[in-house]
Amino acid sequence: MDKQNVQMNDPHPGTQLPGGYPPEYPPAAFPGPPGYTGYPGTQAGYPVPPAGYSAAGPVGFPVPYQPVTSQPGAPAGVPWMPAPPPPLNCPPGLEYLTQIDQLLIHQQIELLEVLTGFETSNKYEIKNSLGQRIYFAAEDTDCCTRNCCGPSRPFTMRILDNMGREVITLERPLRCTSCCFPCCLQEIEIQAPPGVPVGYVTQTWHPCLPKFTLQNERREDVLRITGPCIVCSCCADVDFEIKSLDDKYVVGKISKQWTGLVRELFTDVDNFGIQFPLDLDVKMKAAMLGACFLIDFMFFEMTRSEQRAGMW
After folding, report:
1. What's a single GO MF annotation on this record (predicted)?
2. Domain boundaries along the sequence of the chain
């Protein structure tokens, strides 16, 4: 009975925070616009996860966050987020996204690129707010494409889970990069699992502002992304707001995080944060992840390349 009373009087039930400490990442920070119904329980027509796809436990029992370092296929010593039980008709591998309202994307430093300026394939760690790795993303392009097309290059981004399985594929075609022509604009396709489109991110033409539209698998507009007129800031983050279609409600944001003067000047390594409603459709969460990579290549890879060229 005493234990029950302590739990009921806990200032933040369901957490392990002591009294007097607010939750670090409130899940209701972006509750969504009025009338938003959240993540649908059943998505008709989507195939069930393939045989052999493992879950962390029986359906209906929540899995607590805890560091996992010994899962088969995972690099030694790297904490991974435990795989939660997949909801009904959830695309395989996206069940991780059902329990989080924030993603942290950390690009890895490539020593060869720093020393020589020779463009190498980008690699990213995708983590939750506790620092546990959820996915690992690796760019799949050839050497000629990377060094001839630069940040405008088409690419395939392969996103792997803690078992080394490719669960999300991002496809960016070669498109126009000039803001003067409102045609053939930037786009990225999100597939989960690979080969099954679940969303798209398309650039919306605007003479001054970076704007994008998030679309579902039927290419129906769902959300919009609007960035600042100047996509660079010294000693501060650069925020791209995720809004409802009528631009009245902010439901999340994609933030390019300031990483320090030395790293910003001498490398093209970037860190991003994505915030979204906890109950948002996992397909839209995956689409926001794709939007983050598209924004990185369009604006911040180019900025670092120009800085290096100017310095030398």
Report:
1. phospholipid scramblase activity
2. 95-310
